[in-house]
């Protein structure tokens, strides 16, 4: 790892230190619709009404998904002085610039009564300091930001798009690693959890910048992402990275340590740099 830095919690400060390659943005907002004469058919109005209803249902579903976890989880998250993941992205992006979100419906009704809004992770293309970047942000309000099988697929898909288009990757990391009740489904395949770190390494070797911002307690798989990045930024008094947290250390060795003693910058920098 080339460097680990401390920043106070500010998206714009993060922007100022990023060094990434130049990309081009093509504005598609001026696209126009060419008429086909279908509006003259008698069933047109009925179809139009049904489509409007379907679009309204979709927009309502997406609005719920964008809230992330339930109200209790969101309050617990913000009570720690942490921004919600979509607010983090808004702070990171250039003011007024668009954000092309990917795979918003990932995880929707996929696990029965278990809600996993957006698959527990937000991915999309946004402009940072004038450069188009792939942004991957864990949502800790959804099961602690842990990785379900669909979370892995969504993360890997974002990386594939970034690799194909040579987009610098910015990882806003706040994750407890693999979702343990479903870990048997997370690891075994070629395109499962381990592929995330393979993609980071191969993209870095091709000059596609990999930058991680540690915004919370990142355990196990959540710790690998910043460890594999070209540059890691750890938010002071918030970010920690370790394979196992204090309870696991106590169970394994009997030693009692705090999260900061185990995973903050001073210790991490000493052992990783």
TrEMBL record:
One of its GO terms (biological process) is L-leucine catabolic process. Residues 51-273 form the CoA carboxyltransferase N-terminal domain. Its EC number is 6.4.1.4. Pathway: Amino-acid degradation; L-leucine degradation; (S)-3-hydroxy-3-methylglutaryl-CoA from 3-isovaleryl-CoA: step 2/3. Gene3D superfamilies: 2-enoyl-CoA Hydratase, Chain A, domain 1 (3.90.226.10). Belongs to the AccD/PCCB family. This is methylcrotonoyl-CoA carboxylase. It comes from Pocillopora meandrina.
């Amino acid at each position: 790892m080339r460097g680990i830095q401390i920043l106070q919690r500010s998206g714009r400060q993060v922007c100022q230190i990023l060094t990434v390659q130049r990309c081009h943005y093509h504005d598609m907002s001026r696209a126009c619709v060419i008429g086909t004469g279908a509006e003259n058919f008698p069933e047109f109005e009925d179809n139009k009404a049904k489509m409007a209803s379907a679009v309204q249902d979709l927009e309502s579903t997406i609005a719920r998904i964008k809230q992330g976890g339930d109200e209790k989880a969101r309050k617990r998250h913000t009570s720690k002085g942490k921004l919600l993941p979509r607010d983090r992205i808004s702070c990171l992006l250039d003011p007024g610039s668009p954000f092309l979100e990917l795979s918003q419906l990932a995880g929707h009704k996929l696990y029965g009564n278990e809600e996993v809004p957006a698959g527990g992770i937000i991915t999309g293309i946004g402009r940072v300091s004038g450069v188009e970047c792939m942004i991957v942000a864990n949502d800790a309000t959804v099961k602690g930001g842990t990785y379900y099988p669909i979370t892995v697929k969504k993360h890997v898909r974002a990386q594939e798009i970034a690799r194909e288009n040579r987009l610098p990757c910015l990882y806003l990391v706040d994750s407890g690693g693999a979702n343990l009740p479903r870990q048997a489904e997370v690891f075994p395949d070629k395109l499962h959890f381990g592929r995330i770190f393979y993609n980071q390494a191969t993209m870095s070797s091709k000059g596609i910048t990999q930058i991680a911002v540690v915004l919370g307690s990142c355990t196990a798989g959540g710790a690998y992402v910043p460890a594999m990045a070209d540059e890691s930024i750890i938010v002071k008094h918030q970010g920690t990275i370790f394979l196992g947290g204090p309870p696991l250390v106590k169970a394994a060795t009997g030693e009692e340590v705090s999260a900061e003693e185990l995973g903050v910058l001073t210790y991490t920098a000493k052992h990783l740099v």
